[in-house]
Each structure stands twice: as C-alpha cells, then as structure tokens.
TrEMBL record:
Organism from which the protein derives: Methylobacterium marchantiae
Annotated protein name in UniProt: phosphoenolpyruvate--protein phosphotransferase
EC numbers on record: 2.7.3.9
Obligatory cofactor(s): Mg(2+)
Cellular compartment(s): Cytoplasm
Length: 754
C-alpha cells in the first residue's frame, strides 16, 4: 500500500507543528506516533527507547494496547526490535511472525499484525531506540517508505537526545544520556574530574525540517561543489588536511567526496523534507552506525575520513570556519578529540585543563609526552570518543588505568574524588622526600633529572627536587610557532632556560623533527617510512644552515656557563663527527667576533638507533656523554611501530633482549668512562627504573611527576641485590621472556615501593 498523499514532507511539517505544541512530553510523543501511522497508512506505530540499563522500553504506540506503554521492556538484543537496535539497520518484513527473531509479547496485542517495518533511532552513529510501523496485511514496504521513516526517526532522535523524554520513565534514563565507562590506553598519569570540551566541536543542526525544498536542494549541491573544489585544491598543492595526514588520506577523502552512493543518499534525504544540514547529519549518522559495527579495522578507520568530509560539508553549509584550538577554556575542562598534536594542546589555557581524551595516540606519542610534561591526565585509544559525549557532559579521566567515565553516577564520582584525595596525600609524601639525596640502601647514588621541552616544565625543578634537566626538547618551540623561529628568538628561549635552571645542569637536544613531528610551515615530505626517513640529525647535516643557526643561538645563550648539546637519531660515528665539526666552526666564528663562549661545551649522542649498539665502543670514545632514547630504541630494535595499536604491545621493555641491549650500553659506557643517562619514558617508571639501576645505569631523566615515585623506589632498593637477580635471570631465560614478573616479585619481597 503506498504512502499517503503528501508523503514525508507533509509528515515533517505536521511533526514540526506537534513539536511546538505546549503539551506534556508524553502527549507530544503520542501525537507523533499517530501522525506517523496516518502518513504511512499503518495500523500500528510504536516508539521504543533504549534505556541506560540497555533495555528497550515501549514509550508510545498507536494501534497496540496503550496499557503496555512503559510496561513492555526487552533486552537490547531481544526480538525484532532488539535486532534493529543491535545492527542499526532498517528491517522490513511482510510476515514478522515467521522471522526467527520474532518475540511475542501478549500485553501488546501485536499478534494480529503481519507486515513490519522498523528503523533505528540514531544520533552520531549511536542507537537511541527503534521506530516501528506494522500492518494487518502481508505487504512489502517500498524504499520510499523506508526512507521516509528513517527521516522521521532523525527528528525523534533529537527529541530523545534533548532529554525531554527522561521524565516519562522514572528510574531509567535514555541511552543517549547513560553513564559510559570505557577503557583505552593510559597516556599520562593522574585523575581529572571535569566537563567535556570537544577539540573540534560538532556542528549542531538546529533546523531539521525544510521550509523551501528547492532551495535546500540548491544549497546541498552548491556545498558539495565547494567542498570538492577545496579538496581538489589541497591535493594539487600537496597540503595536509590540518592534522598531519598524508596525501594518501587526502586522496581517500576526495574519493568519498565523489562517491555516487553517498551523494545520492543525501539528495534523497533532502527530497524527503530535511534541510541540507540535516540530510548530511542523517546520512553520516547512518554511516557511523554501520562502520562502527564493522570488524575490519581498515573500514573502521575510514570512518574518520567520512567524518572529516561530513564536517567539511556542514561547515560549508552554515558558513563556519574550520574549528581550531581555543586558548581559553571553562573551569575544569576535559579535552576530547579524535587526534591532536602537541602544538594544538599547547594552545589551550592550561590553568583550566584537567584532562585529555583521544581516540588515537599511544603512550609514547608526542601528545602523551607533552601531557606528562604538563602534568595533565590523558587517555588514548578510546573508540568513538567524540561521539560518546556531548560538550558539557561530566567526565572523569583516569590516566593511571586508561579508563574514562562519561556522565558518571554519584557513587562513581565520589569514589574518584576520594582517589584524588589519596593521590594528593601520596604526593605530599613524595614532596617530603624532595630534599633527600637519591641513594640506595647499599649506598649507590642515583641522579634523577627532568625531561622538558617548555619553560613551564622548568617550574617543576624546585618542587620535584630534580638534579637538573637530562633532556630539553627544542623542537616544541618550532612546532608551536607559525613560522620558523629566528636566531634571536631561539637564543631568547635558551637564555630563559639557563636562567630557569640556574646552576643545575641542562642537556639540550638539537632539533628533532621529521617522521611524525611535522612543522606546520615546512612542506610535507612524502615518505614510505617516515620514522626511518629524513629526520633529526639527517636533516641537520643535509641542511646545515638550519643546524648552524640553532647551534649559534645555543652557544651565544650559554655565554660563560657550561653547555651540553645532544644530537638525536645518530646512526653512525661519522654523523656525530660531522655534527661536532659544525659546532667547532660556530665556536670559531663567535670567537672571531668577540662573543663570550660557554665555559665548558660538551657534545653527546642520543643512542636510539640500533646500529650504534655495534659501534658503542667507538661512539663512547668520541662523545662526551651518551643518552639512551629508549622509546625509539625499542621501536627500532623490535621493528614495532609504537603508534600501531596492533603491534605496540608485542614486546616488553623488561624482556631479556631489551635488557641485554640496555646492559650493553651501560657496561661499554662505563668501560670508556663516558657518562650515560636514560632519558626515555621507561626511566620514569619505578619498576623499569629499578631494573635499569640493576643493569648499571646511575642517571635517569623523566617527567616531573615521576621523580617522587622513582626516588621512593631508590631509597628502598638494594642495588647489588637487584643486579644479582637480573644477572642470574638473564642467563637463565634464553627464550626472550619478560622478567617483569620476577622483578615485581623481587620488589614485593624486599619492600621496594613500585
């Protein structure tokens, strides 16, 4: 049977009138199901809402027994309605009772009805409920009728998401506002309680129903043309799309922009009576729902490309600029983003920032390193994070366990508030250790220093009791700037660093860019393997002017005080010798022009490329000091991309192969009387730091928050005892097994706090 004259457009107009009526939410919903049933000429129309306890509840019906409303409840995977909620796909049946998923509910009186059409109520790809129509006859619903019901479902979804129906079923909230607990990967320790701020705020479509259909069609076509043209221009110019994506990703977005199926669905949605914005939103919500349920990780990853394209189209339709970072934040802000670079994070007002939640980003990513430096709790790899919550939602970030709690109940909130108080008391105990020397129980002195990259990091020197800065990353200054910092600007920063550190030693690493650290003002370089490509010292040696400007700024800034310069990504002794020659030339230049040179200038190497393990004796003879970059060293040693979640956990830094590599460096550096420091992330973890001390390392550099826990471990440790355990276990374990369980048991047995 065909839809009634006027079809979905007439229905949408009547729905708009019903939404504006000054009646109770239940009366409005009852009126809506009556209008839908009349429009599609169905004997039954019912709305089921997914509650926060993951059950589907009948909220309104036309045709079934009204007494069943708020009485009929079923599991989210039960019956035909549950099947639609689970798959997020429409279901059309000419004889519902013959379907194996049919579930008979005697209180509804639906046994008389045969034809069945149900569509999910979706918002941002999340299922909020199900809309169903039924007929007495055995009939087949047309594609137009399915489309019309999906369009109507969008209006109902917004009604549910607004919270208007919350009062209709006391004791159970809508799934749109339910509490969500999800576990990802811990990026930066700490607990943050606050409210959601979206890094790229979703565009809220306020006008759903079209006033002038022809004009909406024109607007959609114009916007599609503009977006296509803009993407074509970006591809032609070779630009990235703003967050470091490669040309390949941009080409994928362009492919979607020309996809006929995507365009057809949006045009059909407009013709059904939606505004152009609502049509884009509806089609993208359907795409999200379908792709979120895919098992193929490649298809799930393409969801981000479609999201980007839909957001571009929405911004074009409403005339909004691309959303960037906001420097000012409301109090107790928790930043939620798909992905974010360290420069974007640094643009925010850190005084109000209480945490960061990312869909992407691993524990050794640069955003994680910056978050740790700033002392901001952060969690990554939270699937669909940006669609789980709305701006302003209450949220808790647990940077220790990698969990987030969205819209938590009062009991959860109280439990985390107590954890925050306990952590504060623990930090007080660590502060009490600040002035104690870090010496083991058997008298071994351990140097504890800070990793830093910003002036704000250096404020932690005094409060942490650190003995200096073991690693100052200079690239952050370049990454947050809109243009290449001049020699004078670089010199000014380094002078401020020396002023802040006073008499404490500071090791400054030369520019480490390339790979995943792209400067916004430098042309993107397409490489098959950026991590193994043109980066760090390789750029400095190939473009010596860049390195010379930085070295000259460092030498002038030091002016009469000691200076330690470290070169990253050195793969051969020759590379270090060439870099050292550039330093000598710059010193000679400054000397000729009457500048005061550093009182002492020491040049070191970051050991992070495995080839140096086989030149360790040679490099230890020519370098003044070594620093082990454990993050990259482990990545290259195990051929594991630390940002690839499929393989990032396939090795353990406390496995025998890793420990042998670390021991080799410590032993050969000691034999050459060459000071060596660990400045990778493992130095800031008490258990791993305990192992490093047992292997012979006596200097560790870490994030400010790690100083207290590591010092507490050092004070409770017998270094010779852990060295003996490691020596015995590394001889015994020939299969590359992890010694984490053994070391944990040792710490427990000897009362070492880890």
């Amino acid at each position: 049977m065909p839809a009634a004259p006027g079809g979905p457009r007439l229905l949408l107009r009547r729905l708009r009138e019903a939404m504006a009526e000054p009646v109770s939410p239940q009366a409005r919903l009852d009126r809506i199901v009556t209008l839908i049933a009349a429009n599609v000429i169905a004997e039954v129309c019912s709305v089921y809402v997914l509650s926060d306890d993951n059950t589907l509840e009948l909220f309104a019906t036309e045709g079934l027994n009204r007494s069943a409303v708020h009485l009929t409840r079923m599991r989210a995977d039960e019956g035909l309605v549950g099947l639609i909620a689970k798959t997020a796909e429409p279901l059309s049946l000419s004889d519902a009772q013959s379907h194996p998923a049919f579930s008979y509910r005697p209180e509804t009186g639906e046994e008389a009805y045969h034809a069945f059409l149900g569509v999910p109520l979706l918002r941002a790809g999340n299922t909020l409920g199900v809309l169903v129509v039924q007929n007495l006859t055995y009939r087949v619903y047309s594609e137009e009728e399915i489309e019309a019901l999906q369009t109507t479902a969008m209006v109902l979804s917004e009604m549910i998401a607004s919270g208007e129906l919350q009062s209709l079923a006391p004791g159970a909230g809508s799934a749109a506002r339910r509490a969500v607990s999800q576990r990802g990967v811990a990026l930066a320790d700490g607990i943050g309680l606050g409210h959601v701020v979206l890094h790229e705020p979703r565009i809220i479509v306020k006008q759903l129903i079209a006033e002038n259909l022809e004009r909406e069609v024109e607007r959609l076509e114009e916007a599609i043309g503009e977006v296509r043209s803009a993407i074509d221009d970006l591809v032609e110019r070779g630009d990235s799309i703003g967050t470091g994506e490669s040309r390949e990703v941009l080409e994928t977005v362009r492919m979607f922009a020309h996809d006929k199926g995507w365009l057809r669905r949006m045009r059909e949605a407009v013709h059904s009576g939606l505004t152009a914005e609502a049509a884009v939103e509806r089609v993208q919500s359907d795409n999200r729902a379908r792709m979120m349920r895919q098992s193929d990780p490649y298809l799930r990853d393409r969801l981000h490309d479609l999201d980007d394209l839909a957001n571009r189209l929405l911004r074009t339709l409403i005339g909004a600029e691309s959303n960037g970072a906001h420097r000012e934040l409301p109090e107790n802000a928790i930043l939620v983003a798909r992905s974010m670079g360290p420069a974007a994070l640094l643009e925010y007002d850190r005084a109000s920032l209480r945490g960061v939640v990312l869909e992407e980003g691993g524990p050794t990513s640069h955003i994680a390193i910056v978050a740790r430096a700033l002392g901001i709790p952060a969690v990554g790899e939270i699937a669909n994070a940006t669609a789980l919550c709305d701006a302003g939602d209450a949220i808790i970030v647990d940077g220790a366990t990698g969990e987030i709690q969205v819209r938590p109940g009062p009991e959860i909130e109280a439990a985390y508030a107590e954890q925050v108080r306990l952590r504060a008391r623990r930090q007080e105990r660590y502060r009490a250790l600040r002035d104690l020397p870090a010496v083991t129980k058997d008298g071994v002195a351990i140097g504890l220093q800070l990793n830093a990259g910003l002036l704000v990091d250096l404020t932690h020197l005094n409060e942490s009791g650190a003995e200096g800065v073991g690693l100052f990353r200079t690239e952050l200054q370049f990454m947050v700037a809109q243009r290449m910092p001049s020699a004078a600007e670089q010199q000014s920063l380094y002078e401020a660093v020396f002023t802040a550190t006073g008499d404490l030693p500071v090791t400054i690493r030369t520019l480490d860019i390339g790979g995943d650290k792209i400067l916004p003002y430098m042309p993107a370089l397409e490489e098959e393997n950026p991590a193994l490509g043109w980066r760090a010292i390789r750029i400095g040696l190939d473009r010596p002017a860049l390195l010379r400007v930085q070295l000259r700024a460092l030498l002038r800034a030091a002016s009469g005080r000691p200076l330690k310069i470290m070169f990253p990504m050195v793969a051969t002794v020759d590379e270090f010798v060439r870099a050292k020659a550039i330093v000598d030339r710059e010193k000679a230049h400054l000397r000729r022009h009457g500048h005061v040179l550093p009182s002492d200038c020491r040049l070191g190497v970051m050991v992070e490329v495995p080839s140096l393990l086989f030149q360790i004796d040679e490099i230890a003879k020519v370098a003044d000091f070594l620093s082990v970059g454990s993050n990259d060293l482990m990545q290259f040693l195990f051929a594991v991309d630390r940002e690839n979640r499929r393989v990032a956990d396939r090795f353990d830094t406390l496995s025998v192969p890793a420990l042998r590599a670390f021991r080799l460096i410590a032993q050969r550096a000691a034999a050459a009387d060459c000071p060596v420091t660990i400045c990778g992330e493992i130095g800031g973890k008490p258990l791993e730091a305990m192992a490093l001390i047992g292997l012979g390392f006596r200097n560790l550099s870490m994030s400010p928050a790690a100083i207290g826990p590591v010092k507490a471990m050092v004070l409770g440790l017998d270094a010779s005892a852990v060295a003996a355990v490691l020596d015995a276990e590394m001889k015994r374990a020939g299969d590359g097994a992890s010694l984490r369980p053994v070391l944990t048991a040792f710490a427990k047995a000897h009362g070492v706090p880890i």
